[in-house]
Design brief:
The chain contains 6 helices and no strands. The chain is an all-alpha fold and about 180 residues long. It has one domain.
Length: about 180
């Protein structure tokens, strides 16, 4: 059971960091020229934005890049990690891209749903705030690494991430990195 939890945590590291990267990039004012809404402020027929001003080109770029960087570090650490690493990270660019872009797209799908439900950016949308990026990362990775992704791995990733996401976001809120606890 412990090995499964460690594997679940380890495989999701590129998605975790990809999901955090846009918030950190905003805070550090990285790539300010890319801080433009990905939906270009276009509104749906209901008058609500597609995603909102919080989903930017910068967020997409740094999220995907961070996914690749973390997968690269995992590749470097592979000889030391042993059975915790269930993927061959020699294709770290592909793994990082899939996990990073999946995490970001998963978050954007959740934002789209939140806007349709009238939920403002930053307001809680439990449990989707905690699992959106995980589901996106797994869905993007599945066609290439489906042999390694089991239901047990997915379930344990969702459970771990649900609690980890709450803890990390509360810590970021109290450290002044985030404006909301969610």
């Amino acid at each position: 059971m412990i090995i499964l939890l460690l594997q679940s945590f380890y495989i999701m590291l590129p998605a975790y960091f990809a999901n955090m990267a846009p918030v950190i990039a905003k805070r550090l004012k990285i790539l300010p020229g890319m801080n433009k809404p990905i939906d270009m402020d276009i509104k749906m027929e209901d008058g609500k934005p597609i995603f909102g001003k919080h989903k930017t080109y910068r967020g997409v770029a740094v999220g995907i890049l961070m996914g690749i960087v973390v997968a690269f570090v995992q590749w470097l650490l592979s000889p030391l990690i042993g059975s915790v690493s269930i993927l061959d990270y020699s294709s770290y660019v592909l793994i990082g891209f899939l996990m990073g872009s999946g995490a970001i797209i998963g978050d954007m799908v959740k934002s789209f749903a939140k806007r349709r439900c009238g939920i403002m950016p930053g307001h809680k949308f439990i449990p989707f705030d905690q699992i959106d990026f995980i589901l996106g990362a797994y869905l993007f990775t599945l066609p290439f690494y489906g042999d390694f992704i089991t239901m047990e791995l997915l379930a344990s990733s969702i459970i771990i991430t649900f609690f980890l996401h709450i803890i990390v976001n509360h810590a970021a809120f109290y450290l002044g990195i985030r404006n909301e606890k969610w």
